[in-house]
Amino acid sequence: xxxxxxxxxxxxxxxxxxxxxxxxxxxxxxxxxxxxxxxxxxxxxxxxxxxxxxxxxxxxxxxxxxxxxxxxxxxxxxxxxxxxxxxxxxxxxxxxxxxxxxxxxxxxxxxxxxxxxxxxxxxxxxxxxxxxxxxxxxxxxxxxxxxxxxxxxxxxxxxxxxxxxxxxxxxxxxxxxxxxxxxxxxxxxxxxxxxxxxxxxxxxxxxxxxxxxxxxxxxxxxxxxxxxxxxxxxxxxxxxxxxxxxxxxxxxxxxxxxxxxxxxxxxxxxxxxxxxxxxxxxxxxxxxxxxxxxxxxxxxxxxxxxxxxxxxxxxxxxxxxxxxxxxxxxxxxxxxxxxxxxxxxxxxxxxxxxxxxxxxxx
Length: 362
Ligand SMILES: Cc1ncc(C[n+]2csc(CCOP(=O)(O)OP(=O)(O)O)c2C)c(N)n1
Ligand SMILES: [Mg+2]
Known about the structure:
By secondary structure, this protein is of the alpha/beta class. The protein is built from 13 helices and eight strands. The strands form two sheets. The protein has a six-stranded parallel beta sheet, with helices on both faces. Strands 5-6 form a two-stranded antiparallel sheet.
């Protein structure tokens, strides 16, 4: 019998759980600039995450999906994408959107149920968050098709969760990306949980990266808590796509350190030992330890940075809270370019019935 297909999935990893190099590091890590930038961004978005949860708990923002545990993935992808690439995110990518230029105030608006957060001018050609699982994978394939047809050297980058890879939309997107050699990068944030469903019962495959094989595109696994490994994998995937060689699927193995959202209580279905073990390999501490060993981190700088980002976040929170309430018709205004008649009637009714002075987050 002849072997007609041979495939292997590699796991890319440079830093151990404790932040120690496990193999020869790439040259760019020999100077601090980029690594320190990665670290500072991860500290910023983690501080923001804590703040948003506090806002939700005090009724000042809506249901929120924490980014805790995915700081490294968003930071590296956001840093490496070119300005004119297009990001097609899911609901756990606000750190990445911020790196692409979305002001914190608009991030807060989105989670506060204010449509203006998704319509922000700063998004440029980037898409707003997708909440319907895996639909964004197809949108990204569509964007990449347009780039290909127009002969533009741009890349569509899309992210989704482990659970999303079980959806038909995701597999269809991979398929067309392979069939048409599209300039698209699929990044799967495998945080081990799809709400209360663990990775082990979501799919029979050993890795999610191997789903790339069925579509004829590149696929690899990377330690999603290791910025160096992520940097290498994402750079290669972007380069491959930009050179017209086609798509890549990167499975970034991470862990959801938070509840699914603020509407969830993970203690009801997840063992505390598992969470405790995940905190031992989380991305921020791992990079901090590495930087410390290089002499590129100290406690004094850390405190100064935390204070600086704290003020930055507070200024944005103040601006968000001071924003005039969005008009009620915004519920409908962002749905269609041209409103169908039935919605036009509903819109008018909404305006007629609007209570003056209604509270922001009832
Ligand atoms: C089409 C669709 N079905 C179901 C849901 C409800 N839902 C919201 S999040 C989620 C789990 C997603 O898990 P995963 O893809 O692993 O992403 P994570 O939230 O863990 O980052 C589900 C089923 C939805 N939003 N959209
Ligand atoms: Mg998940």
